[in-house]
Amino acid sequence: MFCCGLGLGIDRPDRPMAVIQRQIVMTYLKLLLTAFFWGGTFIAGKGLAGHVHPFCAAFLRFSIASFFLVILVIRQEGRLPRLYGRDVLLVLVSGSTGIFAYNLFFFSGLTMINANRAALIIATNPIFISLFSALIFNSMIQFFGIRQCHNIGKCKGWSSRWYNTNYSS
């Protein structure tokens, strides 16, 4: 079935099909809502960018999201996970660069360009991360199941399955 990777327990015969179908519908509804709210942040951010300083907007967005995430974790796990030693520093650095800095640049950018261009720029992040990862760290890039690499010597015959060529040196 098409949703075996969703963790819905489809392979369990004791689950009624109505329960499985309801879980599938809820999964796709959650995915749809995620895309809806994620896309809505560009429109809301553009409206906010003209009235609030980008630093304040980033701080408010980070604070509100942190508050609700803490509540969600406590509700799901019963308590916050315990951090030891260096983990505290790593969490703080990750939060301040990966989340707070992203929001700061997001709101700063929305003061300069319109929301649809900002959304297009953000949507290219995975592409550029993959390309720079391949160029800087010599990692493989995979498009539609076809692995590609900027350095044929590192790929060692990845294309030999299709072109009957041998690039091993």
From TrEMBL:
Keywords: Membrane, Transmembrane, Transmembrane helix
Protein family per UniProt: Belongs to the EamA transporter family.
Residue stretches making up the EamA domain: 28-144
Principal subcellular localization: membrane
Topology with respect to the bilayer: Multi-pass membrane protein
GO cellular component: membrane
Record's protein name: DMT(Drug/metabolite transporter) superfamily permease
Organism phylogeny: Bacteria, Pseudomonadati, Thermodesulfobacteriota, Desulfobacteria, Desulfobacterales
Compartments reported by the entry: Membrane
Transmembrane segments: 25-45, 51-74, 86-106, 118-137
Keyword Transmembrane attributed: yes
Pfam family, one: EamA
PANTHER family from the UniProt entry: EAMA DOMAIN-CONTAINING PROTEIN, INNER MEMBRANE TRANSPORTER
Top-level taxonomic group: Bacteria
